[in-house]
Design brief:
Length: 161
């Protein structure tokens, strides 16, 4: 079932047991829109991604737990260390009795370092303005230190050949 945000903050109501193709298409666009907003430093554009009361948990990355769109924008603009670009992949939508969940991965191009990967775990709601993230958790899959070790190993293998 999906949840639809109502006129008041944090209010939800179960309204449907099935999403249509248009819903799934819109949900599949959210990761790309997020990546472009961050890469373009379009902080206002984050309003097309998150609800006003969204939570964004970056603790696995060593960052804070951000509460509210204003906090997310402020952190992204003033404190976050962003990769050169976000490449989003492995995007899929799950629907269960708890709601709708969006899952995807990032391949982050980092300045002077090998690419790093991570996974996003989103809970999403359908608002009058479209689908938005209410809760996002980021999990590191392969940090820069591991990526550097793997690159050294590959270089050593190539030198031995």
């Amino acid at each position: 079932m999906w949840r639809t945000a109502l006129g008041t903050k944090n209010a939800t109501e179960l309204v449907s047991a099935r999403m249509d193709a248009a819903d799934r298409l819109e949900l599949h666009e959210l990761p790309g829109r997020y990546g472009d907003a961050i890469d373009d430093r379009n902080w206002a554009g984050l309003g097309r991604i998150f609800t006003d009361d969204a939570v964004f948990d970056l603790t696995d990355l060593g960052g804070p737990r951000l509460e509210g769109l204003a906090h997310i924008r402020r952190f992204m603009a003033d404190e976050a260390e962003h990769p050169l670009t976000h490449l989003m992949t492995n995007i899929y939508v799950e629907e269960d009795v708890a709601g709708v969940h969006l899952r995807f991965r990032i391949v982050a191009m980092l300045p002077g370092r090998p690419p790093a990967t991570g996974s996003y775990f989103d809970d999403v709601v359908k608002t009058p303005d479209g689908w938005r993230v209410t809760n996002r958790m980021f999990k590191v899959k392969r940090g820069p230190a591991q990526a550097e070790r793997e690159q050294r190993r590959l270089q050593q293998q190539q030198q031995q050949q």
